[in-house]
Recover the amino acids of this structure.
């Protein structure tokens, strides 16, 4: 089964994001998004974008774009900024919650960026961010260095290809395609024609501590829990869900 990743270039249009000495966050994020997207496509992933030009959409609209496309994963690229220039540096992965599929993806990407030289600021929970809260698939926001730190800017520009390769390698290690490290399994907990009903079940499951996503399976919206590396793990997850009163079906992802 193909894996669809939607990439988001942070900010855009009248929203420049952070800026420093004429450098604009919206330009850096679009450049890295398009480069990463091309490399992911070459690696066999299906790639979508919230924007491919200098256009503004609100964070809520970006989450809705991802939900309408029914992507499997959402990755948003940003640049950080400190109060004073050349004070803070490093890359960081922001997620809605730790111990989730999104956190595993974010950590894998950030680990690769640290290996190529960026200072590692690690993983942080940011449940208040709209693009992490409103997306119905595992979502991570990557802060690719501080735009007002000269060392981070030098690395971003001079090692651009190495940086984008590191991001792609992080994605590949966290989300292997079938035939690379084996298939993944999930547990389907609901199937709906109405997207709102699927979203309600997703919220209910997440409230109980499960990692759930809504997947478009024409003409239905499927609510799938987990992304397990083995059928045995998926069956164990299915037992937990059945114990909690859900009618379930193990599915291959």
């Amino acid at each position: 089964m193909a894996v669809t990743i939607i990439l988001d270039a942070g900010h855009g249009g009248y929203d420049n994001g952070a800026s420093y000495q004429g450098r604009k966050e919206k330009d850096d994020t679009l450049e890295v998004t398009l480069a990463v997207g091309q490399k992911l496509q070459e690696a066999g992933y299906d790639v979508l974008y919230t924007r491919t030009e200098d256009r503004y959409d609100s964070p809520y609209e970006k989450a809705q774009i991802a939900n309408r496309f029914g992507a499997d994963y959402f990755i948003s690229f940003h640049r950080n900024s400190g109060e004073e220039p050349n004070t803070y540096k490093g890359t960081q992965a922001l997620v809605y919650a730790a111990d989730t599929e999104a956190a595993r993806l974010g950590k894998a990407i950030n680990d690769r960026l640290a290996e190529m030289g960026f200072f590692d600021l690690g993983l942080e929970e940011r449940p208040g961010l709209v693009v992490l809260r409103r997306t119905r698939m595992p979502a991570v926001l990557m802060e690719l260095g501080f735009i007002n730190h000269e060392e981070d800017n030098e690395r971003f520009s001079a090692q651009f290809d190495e940086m984008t390769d590191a991001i792609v390698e992080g994605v590949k290690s966290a989300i292997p395609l079938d035939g690379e490290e084996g298939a993944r399994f999930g547990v389907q907990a609901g199937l709906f024609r109405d997207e709102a009903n699927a979203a309600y079940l997703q919220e209910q499951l997440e409230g109980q501590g499960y990692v759930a996503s809504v997947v478009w399976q024409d003409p239905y919206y499927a609510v799938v829990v987990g992304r397990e590396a083995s059928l045995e793990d998926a069956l164990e997850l299915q037992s937990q869900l059945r114990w909690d009163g859900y009618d379930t079906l193990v599915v291959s992802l």
Observations:
- Residues 185 and 228 are 5 Å apart (CA to CA).
- Residues 25-42 form the longest helix (18 residues).
